[in-house]
Amino acid sequence: MDMKAYLEERRGLVNRTLEGIIPQGRGPAFRVVEAMHYSLFAGGKRLRPILCLAGAEAVGGDLSEALPVACALEMIHTYSLIHDDLPAMDDDDLRRGHPTCHNQFDEATAILAGDGLLTEAFRVIADAAIHFIGKEAVLLETLQLIAAAAGYQGMVGGQMLDLLAEGRQVDRKELETIHRLKTGALLTASVRSGALMGGGTRQEITLLTGYGEKFGLAFQITDDILDVEGDSTEMGKAAGADAKRQKATYPGLLGTNQAKAWARQLVESALADLKPLGERAAPLEELARYLLVRRH
Ligand code: GRG
Q1: How far is the CA of 278 from the centre of ligand 1 (A)?
Q2: Beta strands in 92-132 (DSSP E)
């Protein structure tokens, strides 16, 4: 398949829908909407919405039914980046190749922009109920899944553990827990929610959840490797940030070669999960392979 064209088409679909959700500079509190829009459209691969749509596609679902959830996932992800960059957390100046939200605006506005995106994401999912009359249980399960993945049992909890681990020796088990929560939970929820919204069977949903978990971990390993080997301009953020903050990473713990070998193993295992789904899972297959060659 032509993956480049596929990704461009999906990004376009997501971006157009997001533009409709967060129109530039409207509403009574113009400044916060401007900051939300700024961070949302400051680049970004749109990996989570693309995974969600591909999850729906893999079970033969209708893309339009998964689209609001796909956009909500990107909004939650963007909120997490804005807050992660704040001086109280990673204190970063550059994100997605642009000044971070608190540098472009100010700290209070950046906090509110993150809050605004997170809250709005759940309104968008709730609004999708109109397409789910008679099958509300699917939407409720999705809502519950995404809330758990984003909250203290998922990303927020992982971020807390990550901050607590700074400057301290961490073993492989602890590192895996941090990343499974901080990064993996939302990525897994992206594929799983797509499969749910697409009307997948329980067996299909379980297979795609397994895929998502391995994808999430492999994504984090390759993110750590890029922090060591990557190019700041290509990545749109400073390389070497992990070492600077004395963060535990996979290359730091296992060595770069072993970390790469583990990422390959995880991708192979994720691909095996997709086998029973056949051709419809081809985009997810390509997305997993892309992890091993990505440069940003
Ligand atoms: C503040 C609650 C809270 C959580 C922050 C996402 C996160 C948790 C921190 C970001 C720090 C980081 C670099 C994590 C590693 C993996 C990751 C999430 C990378 C960024 O995701 P991409 O590569 O970014 O999908 P784009 O910009 O392409 O969307």
Answers
A1: 31
A2: 94-95, 98-99
Picking from 54, 77, 75, 36, the residue whose alpha carbon sits closest to that of residue 183 is 77
Identify which has the larger pLDDT, 81 or 135. Answer: 81
pTM, two decimals, is: 0.94
Atom 14 (ligand 1): residue with closest C-alpha?
183
Task: Please give the Cα distance from 187 to 206 (Å, whole number).
Answer: 15
| Residue of minimum CA distance from atom 4 in ligand 1 | 80
Q: Tokens 């770069």 correspond to what residue?
A: 256
Which residues, other chains included, contact 246 with Cβ-Cβ below 8 Å and sequence gap of 6+? 166, 167
Q: How far apart are CA 4 and CA 174, in angstroms?
A: 36
The total of other beta-carbon atoms located within 10 Å of residue 5's CB is 9
User: For the domain 3-290, what is the CATH code?
Assistant: 1.10.600.10
For the cut 90, the answer to whether the pLDDT of residue 181 exceeds it is yes
> Do 101 and 91 meet the contact criterion of CB atoms below 8 Å apart?
no
d(CA 66, CA 55): 9
| Cα 134 to Cα 89: distance, rounded to the nearest angstrom | 43
Centre of ligand 1 from the C-alpha of residue 223, in Å: 9
